[in-house]
Automatic annotation (TrEMBL):
InterPro entries in alphabetical order: P-loop_NTPase
Transmembrane segments: 9-36, 42-63, 70-88, 94-112, 124-144, 164-186
Keywords assigned: Membrane, Transmembrane, Transmembrane helix
Cross-referenced SUPFAM superfamilies: P-loop containing nucleoside triphosphate hydrolases (SSF52540)
Protein's recorded name: Uncharacterized protein
Superkingdom of this protein's organism: Archaea
């Protein structure tokens, strides 16, 4: 389900209405300014930018996050071109060249799934157009005022005031138009998705469920690196071995120890051309609340000193698969007994949180069953809020650049349906359903379960605060299960472990990432 924050909804609706009104004013007023003698160079620049915007609007239609902008820019700039073309105010060569350059940019964006670049480009083009128009109006005002030399001083003042009002109105309309469009532009870096969660939230099983679902769709290319001093770990923590452990029913599942770090990348394609890289770092969950800007900088400095690598280079390479493989091959002996394992975990996670355009926050569904669990969730939501402040605090004031998109994913939904009174009652009302496995994951009943879980979480004030911080782009809320069949197996240490990998609602997760 999509959480449509009301503030964002009102802002977007208001932006559409205001943008259309300002566009009509812009067109009707600016034809006056245009026909009084805009220089050929100004027309050339504006027509080039109009062609660019037409192409960019087409590219924006390929992303659900920027589709609104695509429609808005296509309608507005298409109407500007259609309105002025019959009067000979459009230079076809400039318009065509702009459109061609824009199409080249769109192809680049699609091949890399970097709609944040498209958003940044649109904002840059818009800023250039604004500067050209304002510069033209200021130049025209200055030139016209200088050439008017009436007899009386009073007349001079009157004409100057008229000119100031005339050109000042044009600059005001252009400024409002610029601000509205700049604020409304959205672009998400869709090429990278990062999964983040606390201890016990089910990161490892989430990874297996995601991989299982994507393997069923025949569009997955996994890579992995396991950092551990134990050679057995480097074998047993491979995706294939983890999957075999679950299918073999071996009750030897353990939480990820503090000295281990495993990173998995699952590659897929959107539209068969745009890459999507899903990154899951399986780390000791106790590190998740230490992932912040300050600890990241401390970790980078510690790793830089230990590996004798410049800080700038380390920041670029931190968290990449190639860098972690290099550590396994050449620096593994330096990690243990020195505190560097902690630094490596923190720097790897924070790097991915910063670089990824889409971030999934995992919520341990089992904790919804007890008061103690709900108290733990409150603290975890508070930690997520702090993470968001580190990621987005400065971004709220940025004019250029893309935005991040977030999903809240509840794990262990099968346990919730079995044991939570409100959810179990949903199952009991229908005689055809006895467990989660009886409910198709693309059914109204599945959506009802998801909606009910969201309403349960909404009673938690920390959760409501977390959701309210994610108000710039609609947030996805998804409830998933790795094993929707009967009671999950109980591992020897009391850890809940699935008996098989049968992904439930992971299509929604893939839809979020794609």
């Amino acid at each position: 389900m999509i959480i449509n924050n009301r503030k964002r909804l009102f802002v977007m609706v208001g932006a559409i209405i205001l943008a259309v009104i300002v566009a009509l004013l812009f067109i009707n007023l600016f034809q006056i300014y245009w026909f009084i003698g805009a220089p050929y160079e100004v027309k050339l620049a504006i027509d080039l930018l109009c062609g660019l915007f037409l192409a960019v609007s087409i590219g924006m239609l390929f992303s659900s996050d920027s589709r609104f902008n695509g429609l808005l820019f296509g309608i507005l700039f298409g109407y500007v071109i259609w309105h002025f073309f019959p009067y000979g105010c459009i230079v076809p060569e400039a318009l065509g060249m702009g459109f061609f350059l824009g199409i080249v940019l769109v192809i680049f964006v699609l091949l890399r799934n970097r709609f944040d670049i498209l958003a940044t480009s649109a904002k840059v083009f818009l800023t250039i157009a604004f500067a050209v128009i304002v510069g033209y109006l200021l130049s025209s005002f200055s030139t016209k005022s200088a050439t008017m030399v009436p007899d009386a001083t009073v007349a001079i003042g009157k004409i100057t005031a008229q000119n100031a009002f005339f050109y000042g109105s044009g600059i005001l309309v252009a400024t409002v138009f610029f601000i509205v469009l700049m604020y409304s532009i959205v672009g998400v870096k869709g090429s990278n998705v990062f999964v983040f969660g606390p201890r016990g939230a089910g990161k490892t099983f989430f990874l297996l469920g995601l991989w299982g679902q994507m393997a069923n769709m025949a569009r997955t290319f996994p890579s992995q690196v396991i950092i551990s001093s134990d050679p057995e770990d480097r074998k047993n923590l491979r995706l294939t071995d983890l999957y075999a452990m679950v299918n073999g029913g071996r009750g030897e599942w353990r939480r990820t120890e503090y000295y281990k770090l495993s990173m998995y990348e699952i590659f897929s394609k959107k539209f068969f051309i745009s890459p999507v890289v899903w990154t899951i770092v399986d780390y000791a969950g106790e590190y998740y609340d230490k992932v912040n800007e300050r600890n990241y900088q401390d970790s980078i400095e510690a790793l830089s000193e230990a590996f004798e690598m410049p800080v700038d280079e380390l920041e670029k390479r931190s968290g990449t698969l190639e860098f972690l493989k290099e550590i396994v091959d050449h620096h593994l002996d330096k990690l243990y007994g020195t505190g560097l394992a902690r630094a490596l975990n923190i720097s790897t996670m924070f790097s991915h949180l910063g670089r990824s355009g889409k971030v999934i926050f995992l919520i341990d569904g089992e904790k919804l069953l007890t008061r103690e669990g709900m108290a733990d969730l409150s603290r975890e939501f508070g930690d997520y809020i702090q993470t968001l402040m580190d990621l987005e605090g400065s971004a709220w004031f940025k004019i250029f650049g893309g935005k991040k998109k977030y999903a809240l994913v509840v794990t262990k939904t099968d346990m919730l349906v079995q044991k939570h009174p409100e959810l179990h009652a949903l199952i009991s009302k229908n005689g055809d359903f006895y467990s989660l496995s009886d409910i198709p994951d693309q059914s109204p009943e599945a959506e009802l379960i998801e909606d009910t879980i969201f309403k349960i979480l909404e009673k938690n004030l920390s959760f409501k605060s977390l959701v309210s911080m994610m108000n710039d782009i609609s947030v996805s809320f998804i409830a998933v299960s790795v094993d929707p069949t009967a009671e999950a197996n109980i591992a020897s240490d009391g850890e809940q472990a699935p008996g098989q990998i049968v992904p439930w609602r992971f299509n929604e997760v893939i839809g979020f990432g794609s």
